[in-house]
Amino acid sequence: MFDPVEKLKEYIRHPSVSTDSNFKAGMRGAQEFVAGLLASLGFAIEVVPTAKHPIVLARRGGDPKWPQVIIYGHYDVQPADPLNLWKSAPFEPTEREGRLWGRGAADNKGPLMVHIAAVARLLERDPQLPLRITFMIEGEEEMGSPSFPAFLEKYAPELRKADFVFLSDTGSVSEQQITITCGLRGLMLCDVEVTSSRSDLHSGLHGGAIRNPIQAVAELCASLHTPDGRVNIPGFYDDVLDVSDWERAELAKLGQSEEQYREFLGVPAFHVAPGFTPFEATRFQPTLEFNGIGGGYQGEGTKTVIPSKAFVKMSCRLVPNQTPEKIRELVYGAIRARMPKDVTYRIVDQHDGCPYVVVPPGRSNTPADQSPVLAKAFRAVDTAVTEVFGRAPLYLREGGSVPIIGEIKRVLGLDSVLLGLFLPEDNLHAPNESFNLNVMRKGIAASEKILAALARG
Ligand SMILES: [Zn+2]
């Protein structure tokens, strides 16, 4: 009998911190654990090497007429530091208060275990289950999935034959209100470094003769928004999809209070582009943000200097159907056009990611060519979540980014069904991470129902 909680404990005991080379053994341990677990369920295992940490592909084939689902997860976790803030050791999983505590319990070992356990139960009951399943489990998610796009390209001929991707690496509002994430924002990041003089200069001897690079950076930044909060770059909004009424209505069901949100943020007032509530703006609108700015003297007291260099780090969050390539071009174009000619500058590309949106069946903007298996999966999710958790799920776009979801859509043409299983109180990426065992039990029951419904054909 498959005991998911015990299996999850075993899994968490492998300290799989992907970004820290001191955890090589833990990474290997977690990868071998998850591969071994799926092998024991009858899956054919392929460990795909990458530059850093291999990807586990576990396949259950069958009749090509059976539906095929890819289940995504990642076996790596965030570093556990600062260790002194943990109430129990991060890699020694402990049960208390109806939760399992440990690094990776909620991100993503617990939610992945939910789907493995569901599959185990289904196969135990029906070894001939007419469903093709491929687990695709990477070890570099917490470092930005650097090897994942090349892996997708290489395996695309096989993987794109699947019907959709099923995963739980997003959150829900609460245990009572499960959320299906239907959209994610994309990303485009860059740094701008401005140089005026060869070295720092005396502001008395040379002040008045040259443009200060901090001024050049500040003027550039100030030019990039209009006073009402929109991005001031021609063409920036051209590809933004309209927001459907059902999406606004679904979001309104959350019943969040703007005043509480304002107090939570600790701001005197919101600064939202016209036509959107703050909750809508973070999900439906693209942004251009400054993430860091610097130059010149930062120490105590004064220094009469004209710095030689100044910089700004910026990032755009993108919404469907913007692309990082086009936004990069537009933003760089604006920087080039607006940069004063009496300084030199350099724009440094940083990473990017595509935005993503999927529309559940039966909405005003459901694509006419939506795959029947995907539509069926959404209906099965709706029914299973309602039965198991007692309330229909909410279908929401999120403001954050999970670049692999957009990448899967771009390379494989597949949509993803994102069943949110972690909760705000699970402390992802923070000390005292935990996974709610009640959510785990219900999640397994729901996943089992969903996969069984797909298999019923
Ligand atoms: Zn994750």
Question: Can you describe this structure?
Answer:
This protein has 457 residues and is an alpha+beta fold. The chain has three domains: 4-184 and 356-455, Aminopeptidase (3-Layer(aba) Sandwich); 186-240 and 286-353, Alpha-Beta Plaits (2-Layer Sandwich); 242-280, no CATH class. The chain contains 13 helices and 18 strands. The strands form four sheets. Strands 1, 2, 3, 6, 7, 8, 15, 16 and 17 form a nine-stranded mixed sheet that branches. A four-stranded antiparallel sheet has the order 11-13-9-14. A three-stranded antiparallel sheet has the order 4-5-18. Strand 4 (94-96) and strand 5 (99-101) form a beta hairpin. Helix 1 (4-12) packs across helix 3 and helix 11 (372-389) packs antiparallel against helix 13. It starts with a helix and ends with a helix. Zinc ion binds at residues 74, 107-108, 141, 169.
Secondary-structure blueprint of this entry?
Layout: H1 4-12, H2 24-40, E1 44-48, E2 55-60, E3 68-74, E4 94-96, E5 99-101, H3 105-125, E6 132-138, H4 148-159, E7 164-167, E8 179-184, E9 186-195, E10 201-202, H5 203-206, H6 213-223, H7 245-252, H8 258-265, H9 278-284, E11 287-295, E12 305-306, E13 309-318, H10 324-338, E14 344-353, E15 356-357, H11 372-389, E16 394-397, H12 403-412, E17 416-419, E18 434-436, H13 437-455
Parallel strand pairs: 3-6, 3-7, 7-17, 8-16
Antiparallel strand pairs: 1-2, 2-6, 4-5, 5-18, 8-15, 8-17, 9-13, 9-14, 10-12, 11-13
Helix pairs in contact: 1-3, 3-13, 4-12, 11-13
Zinc ion binds next to helix 3.
